[in-house]
Specification:
The complex is a heterodimer of chains A (409) and B (230). Chain A has 409 residues and is an alpha+beta fold. Chain A has helices at residues 4-17, 19-57, 86-95, 129-133, 146-151, 160-167, 210-217, 239-253, 269-312, 314-323, 327-363, 372-398, 402-407, and strands at residues 61-66, 69-70, 73-74, 99-114, 117-126, 138-141, 155-158, 176-179, 182-190, 205-209, 228-233, 264-268. The chains are: A alpha+beta (409), B alpha/beta (230). Bound molecules: adenosine-5'-diphosphate and magnesium ion.
Chain lengths: 409, 230
């Protein structure tokens, strides 16, 4: 019959007597718990960011860029001349069975003017297929069509950032803007997407028909040239076949001999992002594991202090035993003491860990996410640490011989 | 059946290679309601004997029966239970918990007996009143005189209605006047509440309060006689 509330009271009093020592002992747990929470928050935040980027990028994506692949990666210096054409893009869509849609890309930076407002932004010459490739919907207006691409009409879709900067609250659909002094009719507004994997604001963009970009805005080194293309495979399992089919088709179209290097590279964007996500998850685990070590060290600190405390209070233990304290009365007294130290430390650690994560994301600009699970985990872990490291001193105390303990000076 | 019955108990301490016989085959009986003084020179085994009677220590040989229970057959927690319910200790050095109020010190035996908080503090206050410390419950040991601290210890020994009080030189740290007051208290508990009292002392005038005197020398009982108080 053990009296838990009274035992808790006894333990709390013992901790209050040595306030400084209790606080210092808790410090180990506080640092451990806050480190675990902050590290997991950083890791979870990074994973979440990558997940968001993946879904904003579109799914099952390949990208075809000019330049050869060498064993070290992609060789693509500033001077690399693109050899990709709009016809290549159309051929891929037509002839590769694993491909669902292709979006060509002819990009450049241009000054855009509406009324008295002007804005410098990335202008993307492409086809309606790009919207499908990137799973991109319009928030207002309508997309341009294949017919617009064929006849190189001067129409455009604006990203939200461009709309905000040129139009403010005005509805841009149907208005005329000037891109490099060429007048374009605004057909629609692209839905918000946020940051890309490379840290660019994906909403700071303008889509125009690729042919218009080639002929009227940027010009090309040779007819039909594009910078790159994005390809959507029919599904995750079609990514590898699509990559193979595109390689074969383009080598054939570009007349590249069997021993020659390709003048283009196909990269699996989805796979790259998944790899990044995977490594972020590993990093999160690693950070958490390292932080857990400090929690363990904090636990050893508790055990150390509890052992000192048992020795110091040998006489008290003797008195309690003489008066009728049983084995578990003594054990619980010290375990509860250790548990109280670790749980209060854990609670303080959670508060510091959560605020620390916020400060970290404010100062360093890292997205941090404190998951309730990480709070629950580190709190229960600190409790376990308290019980685990409190048990040995408690066990030692309970085994004292009453008469030896009473005589202890 | 006697309250206490010891048959040929001895206690041997091993100190390195030598065996130190602190107690050599002692046998005696103590009946309920007795007031026994144990006397003898320093080192004669009085405390060793008391610790065995108090179930704080085990004899090397021999049998100890308390209220017909063979103490040698009990485990740690059963012994703790006996100490809790059957025996009240009063030590020379008081052995109160410092940083703990008088009231809470007195509550302690009931705490380990699983008595609810309200009943505990009521009973403890009653026990303090019994030993003449009414209203001192909130004082901490270091705010009390030696005599008052010993009274708290006696209240603690009483509070669980233990039939036996074991007191090892309870007046050893007290002046003559306070000693007399403490002894009066023991006499009162013995006569009014029929509590069996066994106390160790060097002093004849302290032993004179008792009804029976057992003398020890070199671990053996040398005499066992009824005192003049009888
Ligand atoms: N824990 C112990 N270890 C070794 N010897 C002890 C221990 N306790 C007591 N003794 C020895 O046993 C003898 C009896 O001691 P004790 O019973 O304390 O005597 P008293 O109380 O009559 O003065 C003494 O010689 C003492 O030194
Ligand atoms: Mg002694």
């Amino acid at each position: 019959m053990i009296n838990i509330p009274s035992t808790i009271k006894i333990s709390l009093r013992a901790l209050r007597v040595n306030k400084m020592r209790s606080a210092l002992t808790m410090l180990g747990i506080i640092i451990g718990v806050s480190a675990v929470i902050a590290m997991l928050a950083v890791g979870t935040g990074a994973s979440r960011q990558i997940e968001e980027q993946m879904s904003s990028m579109g799914s099952n994506l390949l990208i075809v860029v000019p330049g050869a692949t060498t064993s070290g990666g992609v060789r693509m210096g500033a001077g690399t001349q693109s050899t990709l054409t709009l016809a290549d893009a159309e051929a891929i869509k037509r002839e590769c069975p694993a491909v669902e849609e292709v979006g060509p890309n002819l990009t450049g930076v241009a000054q855009v003017v509406y009324s008295h407002q002007n804005w410098s932004t990335g202008v993307v010459g492409t086809t309606p297929g790009m919207l499908i490739v990137r799973d991109w919907t319009l928030s207002s207006g309508k997309p341009f069509t294949e017919q617009d691409v064929k006849s190189a009409t001067k129409v455009c879709l604006l990203g939200q950032v461009v709309v905000d900067n040129l139009f403010g609250d005005t509805d841009p659909v149907g208005k005329i803007i000037r891109i490099k002094n060429v007048p374009f009719t605004v057909f629609g507004v692209l839905g918000k997407k946020g940051q890309s994997a490379t840290g660019q604001d994906q909403d700071d963009t303008i889509y125009i028909p690729v042919t218009t970009a080639q002929k009227k805005v940027f010009g090309t080194a040779f007819p039909g040239m594009i910078r790159s293309m994005m390809v959507k495979a029919k599904g995750a399992e079609y990514l590898a076949p699509a990559e193979k089919q595109i390689n074969e088709l383009l080598r054939q179209r570009h007349r590249i001999g069997p021993k020659q290097e390709s003048d283009f590279t196909v990269r699996n964007l989805t796979q790259m992002m998944q790899a990044r996500e995977e490594s972020t998850k590993v990093m999160t685990l690693l950070l958490g594991a390292i932080a857990s070590v400090s929690l363990l060290v904090g636990g050893i600190g508790i055990m150390n202090i509890m052992l000192v405390s048992v020795t110091e209070r040998t006489r008290e233990i003797g008195i309690r035993m003489a008066i009728g304290a049983k084995t578990w009365d003594i054990r619980l007294q010290f375990i509860i003491e250790a548990l109280t130290l670790s749980l209060i430390g854990g609670l303080a650690g959670i508060i510091i860990g959560v605020t620390g994560s916020e400060i970290l994301s404010m100062l360093a600009g890292w997205p941090t996410i404190v998951s309730p699970l990480s709070i629950l985990m580190s709190f229960s872990f600190s409790g376990l640490v308290g019980i685990f490291f409190g048990f040995y001193p408690a066990y030692k105390a309970s085994l004292l011989n009453p008469i030896d303990a009473l005589r202890y000076e | 059946m006697s309250l206490i019955e010891v048959n040929g108990i001895s206690k041997v301490y091993r100190l390195g290679d030598i065996d130190l016989k602190a107690l050599c085959t002692v046998s005696t009986k103590i009946e309920s309601g007795e007031f026994v003084a144990i006397m003898g020179p320093s080192g004669s085994g009085k405390s060793t004997f008391m610790n065995i009677l108090g179930c704080l220590d085990k004899p090397t040989t021999g049998q100890y029966m308390l209220e017909g229970i063979d103490i040698g057959k009990l485990d740690r927690d059963e012994l703790a239970g006996i100490r809790n319910k059957k025996i009240g200790f009063v030590f020379q050095g008081f052995n109160l918990l410092s940083r703990t109020s008088a009231l809470e010190n007195v509550e302690l035996p009931m705490l380990y007996d699983g008595i609810p908080a309200k009943e505990r503090s009521e009973k403890a206050a009653g026990a303090l009143k019994n030993v003449g410390l009414e209203g001192r419950g909130g004082h901490h040991p270091n705010q009390l005189s030696g005599g008052q601290q010993q009274r708290v210890a006696i209240a603690r020994a009483l509070v669980n209605n233990a039939p036996i009080i074991l007191a090892d030189e309870p007046t050893g740290n007290l002046d003559t006047k306070t000693s007399a007051e403490i002894m009066e208290l023991f006499v009162k508990l013995n006569t009014e509440a029929n509590i069996t009292i066994i106390l160790v002392t060097h002093e004849h005038d302290i032993a004179a309060y008792s009804k029976r005197i057992i003398r020890f020398l070199d671990g053996c009982i040398t005499s066992d006689e009824m005192g003049k108080n009888v």
